[in-house]
């Protein structure tokens, strides 16, 4: 039994690394190893645009302000779970960069998708909602 607990070299043994790999195997696959973090930031930016539009254009009454506050809390919860998963995955390594993602794309159950096409699929709904929320808010501000 090794009693040299205070020595940092004790912790970096191949036996311990093998145990860590064995344990990591039980945690399943990475959430998104073939999608760069920049795509996640683009999604966060689109949701931030939606929430910013709500704050700027929809908080005319206290009831609307309460709706916006609830929406912001819900969005924070909605985005924090994938963020936690991706940060755990980042510790395991293996994520691609944006240039490699754009070049290689990614494989799905239904076939291969190019990188640019995948980004369009990721961002179409959030960006469309952001544009609609902003447009409706501006129209309501001009009309009302």
Nearest-angstrom radius of gyration? 22 Å
Count the beta strands: 2
**Tell me, what's the shape?**
elongated
Tally of discrete structural domains:
1
Cα(first) to Cα(last) distance is 78 Å
How much of the residues is beta strand, in percent? under 5%
The helix tally amounts to 5
Largest sheet: 2 strands, antiparallel
Low-confidence stretches: none
Question: Which structural class matches the secondary elements?
Answer: mainly alpha
Q: List the secondary-structure elements in sequence, H or E.
A: HHHHEEH
Kindly report the average pLDDT value.
82
- Please give the share of residues in helix: 55-70%
Strand order of the largest sheet: 1-2
Organism: Sphingomonas oryzagri
Keywords: Membrane, Transmembrane, Transmembrane helix
Protein name: Yip1 domain-containing protein
Transmembrane segments: 37-58, 65-88, 118-143
């Amino acid at each position: 039994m090794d009693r040299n607990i205070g020595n940092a070299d004790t912790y970096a043994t191949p036996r311990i690394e093998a145990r860590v790999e064995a344990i990591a195997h039980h945690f399943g696959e990475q959430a998104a190893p073939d999608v760069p973090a920049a795509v996640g930031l683009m999604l966060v930016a689109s949701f931030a645009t939606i929430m910013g539009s709500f704050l700027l254009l929809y908080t005319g009454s206290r009831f609307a302000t309460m709706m916006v506050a609830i929406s912001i809390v819900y969005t924070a919860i909605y985005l924090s779970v994938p963020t936690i998963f991706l940060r755990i995955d980042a510790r395991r390594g293996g994520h691609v960069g944006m240039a490699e993602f754009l070049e290689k794309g990614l494989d799905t159950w239904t076939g291969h998708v190019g990188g640019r096409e995948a980004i369009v699929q990721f961002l179409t709904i959030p960006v469309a909602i952001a544009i609609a929320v902003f447009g409706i808010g501006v129209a309501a501000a001009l009309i009302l």
